[in-house]
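Q: Joint fold for the lines below.
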Amino acid sequence: MKSGRRPVASTSSGHGRRVVVTGLGVVSPIGIGIDTFWKSALAGRSGVTALSGFEELPLEGYRSQVAGQVLDWDVDRVPKTVQADRLDRYAQLALVAASEAIEDAGLRMERENPHRVGVIMGAGMGGMLIGEEEFTKLYRNLRPNRVHPNFIPMITLNSASGIVAITFGAKGVNQTISTACSSSAHAIGQALNTIRAGQADVVIAGGADASITPLTFAGFCSLRALSTAFNAEPARASRPFDRGRDGFVMGEGAGVLILESLDRALKRKARIYAEVAGYGATSEAHHMVIPKEDGSEMAMTMRLALADAGVPATDVDHINAHATATPIGDPVEVAAIRHLFKGRADRILVNATKSMIGHTLGAAGAVAGIACVLAVQTGLVHPTINYDDPDPACEIGGISTDVQERPLRAALLNAFGFGSNNAVVVFKKVPSTAASRTR
Amino acid sequence: MASESAVATRIRAALAEHLKKDVSKIQLQSDLRKDLGLDSLAMIELLFKIEEAFDLEIPNDDLSQITTVGDVINYVEQRVGTPAGSASASRPAAVAAKPAVAAPASKVAAPKKKESRRA
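A: Joint structure:
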């Protein structure tokens, strides 16, 4: 650790190259930029506020009136080389997060072989804001020829991954993964496999969504998925694992991680946050919006991810839980953790990033992934706020409203999506690197 | 069932249609989840239909009161006032495609909420 790097095997468990995280970028309701985000997260600050409203639509018509909004967003943050008004809000957020991550990684695109740099982004809803505006306009004025020419390029789900690649000149694989709430966790996992397979050396991976829009927000209200009991106290609305939880809080944001092969990162003396050690992906083949109630499928996904990583379950010290704060979802996830880790379950530090920012859908896996990576790097597990009255149905020892500190050998990022799909990513501490710039 | 209210008849018929079951199978004491097999999404769909048919807003807080067919009927009868319930029997307005999208604001049912928030 003191003098140089210990030689680390560049392959493990027969998967080809090892992959690490060397850059992070975020746009979130508790901060734009990693430093602000991480400070807020450790301080347990809520980014959930009163819903700002949707122009002439009466707010009282919405059952849920709170959201994790990026209130300090300024479109001028979008790189000047890009015409921001050609991008939906979600793609703007993605671009700013990607821009920070690339800079944070010290990635100099002019020095890269552009065909070895890929982009894999998650998006659950994508360009809904422009979509809703254009649908409404069309039905109001009944003039198809007045639908904006940029409507299609803005609403296509890959507009974020596209603009990131275009802006930074990344000419390798360019893909968008849309698996609802788990989109960007799958994006990280697919980025891992892409680098392992030798298809790229670097992948800009993450996700974004900006679904606090009149129709989409109403749709989630109609699904009765959103919290409605704390409209007068927004900061208390997102309460994973708490007895008073009554649904998730809609959030918006973007998170981006730079993944690259360990060899390459060592060679260019990059700061290494953590290793992306494994990835599990499954379908429950069960129900569009309800998880299998005994948690067995989620447990299986965690087991597969650990097997892929070659990490024994006994090495898992931390889980960043999916934990949306719906009455049904949280107990299932805890049941899954108990199912897999048995007697050790209560000794794993568990937290829920959504307690502070709400559910950012396509960004959720990436933003929580960033929190998970920083936890592995620093040994600091951010609090789960509003966990005031532990619900016995989902009680587990390692949840705290305070920061918890402990060296973390390995950590899981859990993400479960509508459409009956699950993703788990394993992050591992990388010993001995020039790595440790602490935040 | 001679004394069944109009609301009860409508709800039982609607449930029978929703579940593709004979209306005789839809008993007041039937548990929506355990006996009729509704999962949580099917419950929400059912309540959505009832809200539309009776021009109601059912807040999330009230869902816990509703477990049987009888609970649905009681709830609706309480909310629409008298068991006559035929006042809103005319078809809901959401049939014409154009205005449904063009004027979303006017579609929002008058809220019963006390505290309303303006941003």
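Q: Anything notable?
A: Chain B touches chain A at residues 39-41, 44, 48, 59-61, 63, 98, 101-102, 104-105, 108-109, 111, 113, 115-119 (CB under 8 Å). The two ends of chain B are 51 Å apart (CA to CA).
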